[in-house]
Amino acid sequence: MKAKEYLKQAYRLDQRINSNIKEVGELRAMAGSISSPQLSADKVQTSHNGDAPFERALVRIWEMEAKIDAEIDLYVDLKNQIREVISQIDNVDEQMVLRYRYIHNKTWEQIGMELFVDKSTVKRWHDTALTHVVVPENPILISQLDENEPL
Questions:
Q1: Helices 119-132/3-32 angle, 10° precision
Q2: How many CB atoms lie under 10 A from the CB of residue 41?
Q3: Which residue blocks in the chain are alpha helix, DSSP H?
Q4: Is 109 within 8 Å of 119 (Cβ atoms)?
Q5: Are 9 and 133 in contact (CB under 8 A)?
Q6: Which of 13-27, 40-54, 86-100, 105-119 shows the lowest per-residue confidence on average (mean pLDDT)?
Q7: Is residue 9 part of a domain?
Q8: Is residue 96 part of a domain?
Q9: How many CB atoms lie within 10 A of CB 134?
Q10: pLDDT per residue as tens digits for the range 71-119
């Protein structure tokens, strides 16, 4: 795994967590809504599911919350590992560029403002810093948490 791919994982996992949190909010809204009864005379149902309509939504909410908790645990571990990797770099400017970019998710312009340099200098420091990054022997990979697998 290349240094940039490794470092970008935290941002991607953060996006996934935020997406899942949004989905839980939508499920909560659905679970809280009251559905109207179906009074059609044309439809004859021979078996009836005794579960309340909102029960499926609640089960899905609990599953999603468990998944989010696992993702957050992985996110915290990954961020700590990334901080450790960045701290191994000798040049403080390069460290700061990587911290602002991959820990704080700042844009090139924002990093330049923080470090009082222009965008091209930030990108140059970033490119140099990436050559100094040593990916851990056993890196945390967000692929360890399968998107489709329930927790």
A1: 110
A2: 5
A3: 3-32, 53-87, 92-98, 108-115, 119-132
A4: yes
A5: no
A6: 40-54
A7: yes
A8: yes
A9: 9
A10: 999 999 999 999 999 999 999 999 999 999 999 999 999 999 999 999 9
Question: Do the domain assignments include residue 105?
Answer: yes
Q: What is the pLDDT of residue 30?
A: 77
Structure tokens at 5: 């791919």
CA-wise closest residue to 109 among 100, 99, 118: 118
Torsion sign across C-alpha atoms 118, 124, 127, 132: negative
**Which domain range does residue 74 map to?**
3-32+53-137
Rounded Cα gap, residues 151 and 143, in angstroms: 14
The pTM of the full predicted model, rounded to 2 decimals, is: 0.79
Would you state the torsion angle of the CA atoms of residues 53, 56, 62, 64, taken in this order, to the nearest 10 degrees?
Answer: -120
Contact (CB, 8 A) for 77 and 12: no
**Domains contained in the chain, number:** 1
**Torsion angle in degrees (nearest 10) through CA of 4, 7, 9, 11:** -110
Does 42 map to a domain?
no
- Residue type, position 76, single letter: V
81 within 8 A of 13, measured Cβ to Cβ: no
Sign (positive or negative) of CA dihedral 24, 145, 85, 105: negative
